[in-house]
Fold each of these.
Amino acid sequence: MSSKRHSVLPAVDRSGPKPPVNFSTSLTISDNAVLQGTHSITMQAETVVHPRSRIESSVGSVLVGRRCIIQERVHLGAPSDNQDKGTGGVSLGDYVLIEAGSIIEAGGTEIGEGSIIQVGSKIGSGAKIGKNCTVSHLSVIANGDVLPDNTVVYSNGTRRTDKRGTPELRKLSIVKQIAMLRKMIPSNPDKFR
Amino acid sequence: MSRRPAKGDYIETDTGNKVSRKAVLVGTQNIMLGGKTVIQPEVMIRGDLVRTAQAQPPSGGSAAPPNTTAVAIGRYCFLARTVLLRPPGRIYKGVFTYMPLRIGDHVFIGQGTVVQAASIGNHVYIGKGCVINEFAIIKDYVKVLDGTIVPANMVIPSFSIVAGKPGRVVGELPDGAHDEFELRDLYKTVGNNPQPAAA
């Protein structure tokens, strides 16, 4: 057995159509991300996409704003089992952080600027998340639900308004995180073109 | 058997680690496994998120080679399916940096759990579907029940039982309950030549 083991990641399932993409030149996207679907996928400046995240545009187009972070195992634009789902895809504002394992369903779903979706949450089809919201870990937002700006969802769906007024600090922290991730994650946007 | 054995589902290393071929280990050079650790399919470990800000070397000492371990796991740990280990990150001296994630010996982590703790002690049981947040510190002999969300920066003392969203200490382990943390038998039940569980 050789002493140096160079492990290769198991192959990712890349079946399905390759979507038309519209990438900013300053995008950082791991070549282990999965992009699928037929509608367009747009990613704006300085966004970071971690390995093994899945972005699907089979229901509608996907728009990711500036300086967003999409972590591993996120499924953006998942098809919804909701029958009367709205048309359209997913749209993320600027400075949106989507943490590991979250599922964002397609169908006119919108997430406002500066919001954080924490680990393992599920955002239903057509939900509208306002600006600077926090959806804490393992929360489920129902289909078509509307969260006003600065809402915090925690502990099995309890809600309150964030009155700390620190969205600027939060953005600063995302900017710093992106500055480091851009050096750390090998980017290969050409693979998806 | 005369034929060479077929390629198994697990890679068994010299030190007895059993790593599923379907596990996703990113940045393997920064992941340390202590030996006899089981990594089941679809586990993901983010070894690529290494510390970038280095601690100041002790005064007078020469600059040591940077320590790039992102995830360190002890002996007889068991990572069930779809577990995600990712080092915790925070802003340190004005720049964002990831910090190492350390896991002790005999640690069981249940299905679908996401761990971003700073350190987990020895003989810890973490149930299914938990989230252990950034810089949480779990000491020895702790039981985290299924579906718990351990908040960021929480320190869980030894011999605690933790549950809830957000997680709170809900009880204390009784004196006789230490044996169930022993993972040697569980280790034998997986791999390419699994042994039946001891009765």
Amino acid sequence: MSAIARTNVMDLTAPAIEITDLNKYYGTFHALRSINLTVSKGEKVVVCGPSGSGKSTMIRCINQLEEHDSGAIRVFGTQLDDNLGSIDEIRREVGMVFQQFNLFPHMTVLENCTLAPMLVRKISRAEAEATAMRYLEKVRIPDQAQKFPGQLSGGQQQRVAIARALCMQPEILLFDEPTSALDPEMIAEVLDVMVTLAQEGMTMVCVTHEMGFARKVADRVIFMDKGEIIEEAPPEEFFGQPKSDRTRLFLSQVLGH
Amino acid sequence: MTASSLPGGQSARLRRLRRDYFGSPLAVLMTLLSAAVIAWIGWFLLDWGVIRATFGADGTQETCVAHGGACWSVIAVRWRVILFGIYPYEEQWRSALACVVVGVVILLSCLPRMWSFGRLALVWVLGTVIFYTLMRGGVLGLVPVNEQQWGGLPLTLFIFVATGIIGMPLAIGLALLRRSEYPVIARVTGWIIDTIRSLPLLSILFTCAIVLPFMLPGFLIGEKLYRVLFGAALFFAAYQAEIIRGGFQGIPKGQEEAAKALGLTYWHRTFRIVLPQAFRLALPATINQFVIAFMETSLIVVVGFMELLAAGNTAFKTGEWKFAYAEVYVFIAAIYFAFVFGLSRYGAYLEARMNVGHRKD
Amino acid sequence: MTGPSFLRSRAFRRVTLQAGFVAGLLLLVLAATLTARTNLATQGLTSGFDFLWKSTGWEMNFSLLPTTTADPYWWYLLMGLMNTLFMGTLGLAGASVLGLVVGLMRSGRNPAARLLGTIYIEIFRNLPLILQLFFWYAMANALPAPRASIAFGGALINARGLYLPGLMVGPGTVALAVLSGLVGLGLAIWVLTARRFNRVEPRGQRRVALLAVLAGLIGAGVFVVLGHDPADAWVTLPALQGLKIDGGFRIQPEFYALAIAITTYGAAYVGEIVRGGFKSVGRGQMEAAAALGLSSWHIFTRVRLPLAFRAMLPILINQYVWLIKATTLGIAVGFSDFFMVIASSINHSGQTFEFIGILMAGFLLINFSLAAVLNRLNRAIALKGHQTTGSA
């Protein structure tokens, strides 16, 4: 699929993400309560739930921005344990898009996109720039390549952030509320890009409140509350006949107006 | 003439001026008092420093006292002692050239296009090497001159540059250790920084000059000058580390997370993402710290070095010029002032420029 | 992957890095100590703190309580520490008052006053403190000889020092009086800042604090009256007797040169902090106060000053700590502050390490207690519900 030589020994036939009995505490607060989740390659999973339900914490455990306390996470068969090597390896294959974009303000858009491929994948500047331009075109802002993030609108910044993640040519993309910090008129341009990616077969785990997006592209919708997975179903079933009261309450709040 | 007969803008300005200067009895009093003080200082300086002053190398105490003003003759006669101390007289061109080198280094570091770790390090290290070669000699046919004979302005500049060149990497190191994710390292480093910061610089210089030789194995003791320099650099580093830490705190947490998510290693995250942004945020405070470091070079007079201030003291402490202390101190003060004022104005300019840049975002 | 996996584990790294760091530091300290011990042994020096009870054999040129060459080291050290605190207190007070004036001039509307304030700050802040100190000291020494003393308002000044009219009481009495005043002040600060009084109505709290200060002052007055010998006159005026000055209270050039230098230099910094504090008070606050019909005096005392003070206190704390440390410059002109006593003691006794240890402990103690008191004050006056920007 990619021109870049993979340095890892990941097993692309294994499930993309396999989480078993995951627990996480902040002090005495039990943030994740024995989470079990499997995402297969090419699958799109949308995670929703009220704020503080642990959904961000869960996907941040997948690339170890948060350390989990017990349980196992496997990404393409590679287990994330205490081993720093496995963390490096998984971060190379798992891209992430943040709520606050987190573009590097002291670098141009192009530099943002080429930095990691050059430093981590050790490819040449020319190659990195070619890849970067390809993805910037994909998110429809190649003309902004020489600008600094501060000069772009929120929607443009988030699209650059997606391009930056794609430049590492990851197998999996994690989205942590990618549209929550955006003005309403910019949400659509970011969702369009995400829909395109989904249609091209990227494995995606999205924490989002955009239920329209969930209906349109998700293979599965997961509802979390108080650190637990409450419900897990294909979108038609999830929105049509939710099983749990908490899901129904949540849906009525999100979709109610 | 009434204010209303003037065009609007001008009359408003006049009105405002009149209100600010003479709006109330208190304002009138303040204006008169301040103006009187300023006028008095101005007149005194003019009268003492120029009108009744004695210029030229042929002035003596008698002629100076007869004129009643400043006796600039002391500078004309003694300027080489003040500027270069007891550096061999025929070799003093080397001292002068060394000062120019340092000046160039400082000017270059003020240019924004030089602001990368590599370039700055290159300029400062290269500058220091040239400076050292010129001053120390012993190569390229230059007569060797021992560090104990260094003095005056070059010594002051050398201490300043060396403090920066040793202190800055130390500061970065301390700041990184201070923000380590490992609590023991972070806490212990915090103690070290706090301890150094609560000690007076003089006591640190004194310790380095007098006590350190006891604690070091023979081959590490070295010249007193270098030990004292290390002390000054350590003190600078403790303060600068806290400034850099302030910069770290201004960076959103997401920056480092994004770098982690992209798979960057600790060193790449630190030197490509975190430090450049921290330095940008900490720039005004950093320049301020350099200004303070420059002024504090004068403290080494206490541990027995002949830097600018001490050289100035010797210039008037000998018999015939004893009365002319004010002139010598004014001369030295002018040198310090030019440097410090220039640097702090530059800092203020940078800060203003950065604020404008922020508003654009 | 390379190497056994436990080498790359997070837990392993956590332990080795932290243990390595501490071990490295300890090793450094140990090596330094061992080298020092060997070096001291070869020079025939012994370590230990017995010397503290030996008499010094040299004179201290300034002390608040009497000292003689027969006094032991610990007494000298204590006097040195008191000198530092005394000079520091004078410097802090002077710099604060003068700095407030300069800062107000700089933040006012009157352009002439603003210019004067700016000139002051640019001159005093941009020159090294030690240069200013040397200048004042040279000036003090260049004053006329005692027989040509300059007289003003009952005081005399000449190259030997400044002679003020003196109260006829012993130094012990003065110490007791000062102690009484300080106790009153300390009580007042405690009442104002201690958490246990948070529930008390602020005005009552302030009244009790005022009472404590008054009680301290009255106590001081009582001590002075009791300590005064009724046979003597109350006040002595300095007067020229032959070639020297008799009577009065002499302040040495070293002392007042340092006091002037610290005050004027510190005031420039305090002035900038004051200006920054006033700048931080939003226009909206003042406009709101004006809209309520408050007079400009009330706007200043009730709105602007209290808000500005809260903004400047955290920065002032750092500046005060810095000013206390600056008293060590006394050694450059020969004022017997704590540092100079330490330096002379090292020269005379050779007990280098012990004295350096005492020096560090002394300054850590001074700075931490000053910072602790000021931080407490900062917390006490911080606006409720706002994050405090603590420091130092």
